[in-house]
Amino acid sequence: MTGLTAELVVDGRVPRTPALAPNGRLLCYVLSPTSQTGDHLDTSLRLADIGGDGVWRRATTDTATESRPRWSADSRTLYFLSDRAERGTAQVHRLALTDDLVIALTDWRAGIIDHLPLADPDLVALLAEDEPTEEDARRARDRDDAVVVGEREPRARLRLLDLRTGQVTTPDVLDGRHVVELRQRPDGGPLALLTRAGADKDYGPRTGRLHLFDPATGTAEDLGPVEADAHSLAWWPGEDGWHLGCIALTPPVLQAGTAVFDLALGSRARRNRTAGLPMCPTELHQTDAAPLVVFADGLNTTLARLDPDGPAALSRHPGRLDALTTTPAGTVIAALTGARYQPTNVHAGPPTGPLRKITDIRPELDGIAFGSQRPLAYRAADGLDLDGLLVLPVGKSASDGPFPLVTIVHGGPYDRYADRLQLFWFPSAQWLATAGYAVFLPNPRGGQGHGHEFAAGVAGRVGREEWTDILTGIDLLVAEGIADPDRLGIAGGSHGGFMAAWAIGQTERFRAALVSAGVTDWGMLAATGENGQFEAALGGSTGWDGIGPHPHDAVSPISFAGRVRTPVLILHGAQDTNVPLGQAVYFHRALRHFGAEHEFVIYPREGHSIRERHHQLDVLRRTRAWFDRRLRP
């Protein structure tokens, strides 16, 4: 067995967006590096005949950002996006399997956002913003670039590419709405379009509407509004005609709790098809018959078929199952999944399972010793059933405790820990386990995998019950002799960063803390973050709700900065628009004011996630050193 290094973590590669050809034999996926070393992320497409020799070959080079592979109906042609001609501007390309020749099909100056080959072999539907005009060029030349909010905002519009002529046309439909997703009916009929009033992430998700577009006549029909944050469109036939479904947030809660919504086009009746289930739909996939639904199910994943009477489970998979792709008949699927001690790979097989691993992306991890990982099940103080994961130090068992314990809280909060390999570029369980730490990964209420009510339980109450959920788990590990009560640390990113900042304002039990891209003031986040209304639903109010104090003040870590006695490491990306840098600056200034021990690190050019290789290495090394100085014997 060999040791785990920071370089080994960040220099890995990950598979993304597998695409199964309609014939069920050919499969393509995107291979992407974990970290970025230049100005752009260089990816490539890998292709194999999984029904034949199964040998993977590089279909494109690693000199461009290539993404979104899509197959033609006859499985002979692969379409994809690439910025090989102009970095940062993606165009549609075609790979013909007969001669392996790659040809650029578009030269749209604004770039292509998404594409969908249609049943008509001569048409490809595109999503793209408007090309710059001569007036735009003049304004840029003259620096006449004042931004009037609400005017000239970039929006993705539906375009049609005619493969016979190479011409791109823009149907005059949808009144300029921003198109976010499209799906053609399985029989080659109309396109379903999901649109929003604009691309703004704060306002847009609440303004969704469904439309039908007939590419033969160029006409569109408005089907009405959809629930907030709708995505994952799918068609299916029923006894009463065609149905159109999507996944969206369950009303009235804006921040969590997804459901599958079903619109019967004949009657226009709309209903929630997953109400009351103790799991959460994450993906909806179209077939020629009943669609397939991926459910986050506790620490694992369930794949189901959406029958007329409700979801019928087909198979259960350990950990996560993501990026599902299926043949039109739905008899063969492929997806990304892994195991406790195996990284994510592409797997394929029947939807009833088992799935066969058909890639080996990271053979360099085969000789690495990982810490023992096991699921935890316990009850909250109010009796609610909870789960999580415990990872022990490498080579140790529970009887060797107590150990220094770091609790890492997940983001979202509408996310979850699944029973998979916990090894990532940020301070993850296996990265700390190799240094001698036990790591607790809790799934408190507010997260995904236990149904709508569980997820909605933190609306307006962040830091309340979800904090006691976490604390109960820590107390359990202390009582079992696994965690040393005098060597406790807490960490998290995004909402997990909020929980870490909240924790050290509520208790002095922790000897070290890490707040990465964390929320410290909910009112300021609702005002400046890109998902403002989502954050307002979590915090419980906004700053314009009248004269304070406001409900969000009572659940904001900044309000308790004067109580902080735990040394805290603050990490933040300079260009973060999800949780803007001002959140970290505010916390830093408050801690400095009160003389609290802390270190504040800003990563230039980085957003909500850290992408550059040297920055990822710094995160791993700096955070482990931070805990080592305070929690190691």
Automatic annotation (TrEMBL):
Residues annotated as domain Peptidase S9 prolyl oligopeptidase catalytic: 429-631
Keyword Transferase in the entry? The reply is: no
What domain of life does the UniProt record list for this protein's source? Bacteria
Recite the UniProt keywords alphabetically. Answer: Hydrolase, Protease, Serine protease
**Know the name of this protein?**
Prolyl oligopeptidase family serine peptidase
Origin species, per record, is: Saccharothrix xinjiangensis
